Amino acid sequence: MNTFARFAQDESGATAIEYGLIAALISVGIILAATALGGSLGNLFNGISTKLSGITVPK
Question: How far, in Å, are 27, 33, 45, 51 from residue 21 at the CA level?
Fold first, then answer.
C-alpha cells in the first residue's frame, strides 16, 4: 500500500506529459503558420525570380 501512495503523490510523470503537450501545441502552431504563409512566400519568390530572369548581366 505504501508503494501505491508514493506513486499517487509522484508528479514527475505529469510534468513530462505537460511538457510534451506544450511541445505538441507549439509544433502545431508552427505548422499552421508555415502553411498559411507558404503560398504567399512562394508567390513572392516566384515574382522575384521572374524579375531577375529578365536582367542581363554585362560581361
Answer: 10, 18, 35, 44
Q: How many domains does the chain have?
A: 1
Structural domain boundaries enclosing 36: 3-54
Rg value, the chain, Cα: 26
Q: Which tens digit of pLDDT belongs to each residue from 6-45?
A: 766 766 677 888 899 999 999 999 999 988 888 888 888 8
Give the model confidence (pLDDT) of 47-57 as tens digits.
999 888 887 77
In a domain, 59, yes or no: no
Burial letters 29-46, b for 16+ CB under 10 A, else e: eeeeeeeeeeeeeeeeee
